[in-house]
Amino acid sequence: MTDGRCGVLGAGLLFLAGCVVGGTAALLYAPQSGTRTRRRIADFAEDVRDRAGDVTEQATEKIQSAKEQASEKFQKAIERGRNFVNT
Q: Reduced to 3 states, what is the DSSP secondary structure of residue 87?
C-alpha cells in the first residue's frame, strides 16, 4: 500500500526534474540576449522552487495522514487484543 504512494511521489519528482532539465535546455538554446535568458532562467528556477515547496507540503500532509491512520489502526488492534485477553 505504501509502495504505491511512494511510486506516485517518485514519478512526480521525476516529472519535475524533467521539467527543470527541459526548460533549462530550451531557455539556453533560445535565440535571445544573455540578460533576458538569465532572467528567464531565474524566473523558471523560482517557479520550480515554488512547485517543489508545494509537492513537499503535499507529501508532508499525506505522510501525516498515513501516520494518523496507522496510529488509529494500532490503537484499535491493541483494544481488540485487550478485549480478547479479558474475555
A: coil
